[in-house]
Amino acid sequence: MPFETHGLVCGHHHLYSSLARGMPAPPHVPSTFIGVLENIWWRLDASLDLDIIYWSAALGAAEALLSGTTCIIDHHESPSAIEGSLDAIAAGCDLVGVRHILSYGVTDRWHNDTMSSHVSESTPMSEAAKRGLAENERYLQSGRKAMVGVHASFTCGNETLEAAADLALRHNTGVHIHVAEGEDDADAGRRLASLATDEWLLVHAVHLKNELPGTIAHNPRSNMNNAVGYAQPARRSNRIILGTDGIGADMLEEFRLAYVRHRESDLTATPDSAWQWLSNGEHFFPEAASDVVRWNYDNVESPWHSAFTPGIRATDVYKDGEQLVANGQALKFDVNEIRTKAAEAARRLHERL
After folding, report:
1. What pairs with residue 111 in β-bridges?
2. Which residues pair with 106 in a beta bridge?
3. pLDDT tens by residue, the chain, 353 residues
4. Rounded Cα gap, residues 7 and 67, in angstroms
5. φ, ψ at 179 (rounded to 5°)
6. Which residues pair with 295 in a beta bridge?
7. Does pTM top 0.85 for this prediction?
8. C-beta of residue 107 within 8 angstroms of C-beta of residue 129
9. Which residues lie below 8 Å from residue 33, measured CB to CB, with a gap of 6+?
10. 333: exposed, middle or buried (C-beta count within 10 Å: 0-12, 13-18, 19+)?
11. How many other β-carbons are positioned within 10 Å of the β-carbon of residue 353?
């Protein structure tokens, strides 16, 4: 039916950022990408606790499902609440009914509660990174779908990068890592060349100079929001999928943004490329092909129609044959309760900032 698609996949999310909306202004207005990380995101993730993580995941998952997204690949960091953090995210997603592949992003930027924006290649593995790897391994051992998370090569020493790659190999999975998002990480290709495999998920790759094996997660809205540049995913030979980098999980909207950003750089670009990137998420979630999403617009399955039609909304969502959304309303969870609890958690989070 022309009103239907498969379940959509968000190929890179930060569910904890669901509660960032309306947060207090940073102490300094960032003028660089590193400044954005230091003044906004690294302050935010250091303020998370398990209850906040749970409700941010539940809210993000609920918004995803109501947007026709049934599957999320999430990358998480919470240096003050590492142990059990992936269980909290899984519980929030399970409450809603969204499939998930989770990872904890290890980093050496935290040492004795002090943060450093750049880490030397020779830096020994930090205690925080060891705890993060342990959280990844504990969750992997539970048998749930997961990857090994790494923040980025520029905030990790070689010992940590090698340990993360080894852990992923031992569990027959990949590493989920930000790669060359900004110019500060432009050396990522060299750092990761001997470690990356086809199972890795390389996020952003805006300034990636060397070809690396793995899937690239393209996040057009986030790249524009952080002014890091255009990733030019069409020039890569890698599989490309679409993510949001934590700015919701409305993947039909992300598809439109991916198309117009592609078109801006190449007048011959068509919506077919961005639609293929959207569909490629099923590589990680083959089950999404059996999910059914009905929309309020016919021809939604046509890239040339959806790219130029605003206001398309999911009306009904079925996962594993079970209806989870009917006429735009959730059937298995109370979205108002989630929003209320999430708002309470956001107030506590924002007070810490």
Report:
1. 114
2. 150
3. 579 999 999 999 999 999 999 999 999 999 999 999 999 999 999 999 999 999 999 999 999 999 999 999 999 999 999 999 999 999 999 999 999 999 999 999 987 777 887 799 999 999 999 999 999 999 999 999 999 999 999 999 999 999 999 999 999 999 999 999 999 999 999 999 999 999 999 999 999 999 999 999 999 999 999 999 999 999 999 999 999 999 999 999 999 999 999 999 999 999 999 999 999 999 999 999 999 999 999 999 999 999 999 999 999 999 999 999 999 999 999 999 999 999 999 999 999 99
4. 10
5. -130, 120
6. 314
7. yes
8. yes
9. 181, 182, 183, 184, 226, 227, 228
10. middle
11. 15
Phi/psi of residue 150, nearest 5 degrees = -135, 135
Domains of the chain: 4-351 (3.20.20.140)
Angle between helix 335-351 and 50-66 (nearest 10): 140
Helix (H, G, I), strand (E, B) or coil at 37: helix
User: Would you state the structure tokens that stand for residue 232, as one six-digit string?
Assistant: 């030019």
The half-sphere exposure of 179 on its side-chain side, counting CA atoms within 13 A, is: 31
Q: Are 258 and 272 a contacting pair, CB within 8 Å? A: no
**DSSP codes of every residue in 40-81:** IIHHHHTT--HHHHHHHHHHHHHHHHHTTEEEEEEEE--TTS
Structure tokens, 351: 């007070």
Q: 85, 79 in Cβ contact below 8 A?
A: no
The first and second tokens of residue 236, run together, are 């890569």
Task: Say if CB 185 and CB 154 are below 8 A apart.
Answer: yes
φ, ψ at 175 (rounded to 5°): -105, 135
Between CA 48 and CA 65 the distance in angstroms is 24
Task: Name the β-bridge partners of 179.
Answer: 204
Asked whether 171 and 148 are in contact (CB, 8 A), the reply is: yes
Strand partners, 204: 179
* Alpha carbon distances (Å) from 257 to 14, 102, 307: 19, 25, 9
Backbone Cα Rg of the chain: 19
Per 3-state DSSP, the chain is made up of helix, strand and coil in percentages (nearest 5) of: 40, 20, 40
